[in-house]
Amino acid sequence: MQRRGTTQARPRWRRAVTWAAWTVALLIVLPLTLAGTALRAQYAGEAAPEARTRGRDALWLGHAWVDGRRDASDVAALRRRIQGTGIRDLYVHAGPLEHDGTLPPARVAYPRAGRLISALHRALPSVRVHAWLGDRLVYEPGERGGLRLSDAAARAAIVASARQVLAAGFAGVHLDLEPLHSGNADYLRLLDRLGPVVRGRGAVLSVAVHQIDPLPGLHSVSGALTGHRKWISQRFFGQVARRVDQIALMSYDTGLPAESLYGGYVAQQTRLALAATGPHTDLLMGLPFFHTESVGHHASAETVRAAVRGIRLGLTREEPGRRRFGMALYVDFAATDEDWAAYGKGWGRRHRS
After folding, report:
1. CA nearest neighbour of 212 among 194, 197, 234
2. Which one of 5, 15, 24, 296 is separated from 235 by 20 to 30 angstroms, measured CA to CA?
3. Tell me: the pLDDT tens digits for 84-127?
4. Which among 329, 320, 269, 285 is positioned nearest to 89, based on CA atoms?
């Protein structure tokens, strides 16, 4: 009898394990399938013909432009690249901030900046040259190797660094501080101090920020599960946007494996960002002009073609008539001819009447 009971128990146990496996699979696979279907739907359709450059696009440039590695021939090549496109702003890497918020002297951080600014003004008179400043942010007690915005002295030092680059002739300050946690009040305090200083000199304050929660509260969930807060809330995005002249959403490093998924995701991000950005701020959506392979970035999926199409679709659906809108190209030294062609054909090339 004992052997018979054991034999009968085995099928029940196996059935229970099978049902449990199917339940877990459905809990994981079904949401992913639904999410994939939703993103592909966002990527479907046609963008409005008028969803073209507004002449407010930007390009991130590496540090080689201000440390002497680039010369007049490079300026001429850059002129050929961007002349006739919608690129108006250049974010030139002027050196990472020190972890206390200070910036090394100009002769160390950006020794050729003055020469570059003069050369670009001659070659491209309508283009503005901004100083791109950034550092890694740290939050935990005792954590080192980064900038702590909760330190008032560090925030004051960043403001002083902004004054320093503006005195060197830059037309604006472009701030990229990562990882930025959603709701960071110290970051907002920093922007509140930076704004009057930058605008008081007739310059432009711009920032690069993370993507917006694709689902409400997702930044909290990802932070709790992985310790990495990939997104910020739409509300916080809007709070940042109100404090700056330009806000660039870094719409890359998504980890998505296919162009249709990535393009649909970018379309959704564009709509979320448009809804959160007021009429007095330039909203720029990032384009992946780089091709590294990692868990967070698949070059075959995160293409310029998919990003441009997704952005145009999002713009068409949310606010097709918005003028204060553009694309930001990251980054010059990793871009290919195909990247430039996709940008120009899909968005950035100005049409002559």
Report:
1. 234
2. 296
3. 999 999 999 998 999 999 999 999 999 999 999 999 999 999 99
4. 329
Q: Give the phi and the psi of residue 180 in degrees, each rounded to 5.
A: -95, 115
The reply to whether omega before 209 is within 30° of 0 (cis) is no
CA distance 193 to 171: 18
Tokens 């930058």 locate to 198
* HSE of 351, CA atoms in CB hemisphere, 13 A: 10
Tell me the per-residue pLDDT of 290-347, one tens digit each, with 9 for 90 and over: 999 999 999 999 999 999 999 999 999 999 999 999 999 999 999 999 999 999 999 9
- CA dist 159 and 153 (Å) reads 10
Dihedral of CA 136/142/148/150: which sign?
Answer: positive
H or E, element range at 36 = helix 2-42
Sequence ranges of the domains in the chain: 1-42, 57-348
Cα 124 to chain centroid, rounded: 25
Dihedral angle computed from the Cα positions of residues 187, 191, 197 and 198, in that order, rounded to the nearest 10 degrees: 120
Contact 106, 113 (CB under 8 A): yes
Give the CATH fold of the 57-348 domain: TIM Barrel (3.20.20)
Q: CA angle 315-277-146, nearest 5°?
A: 115
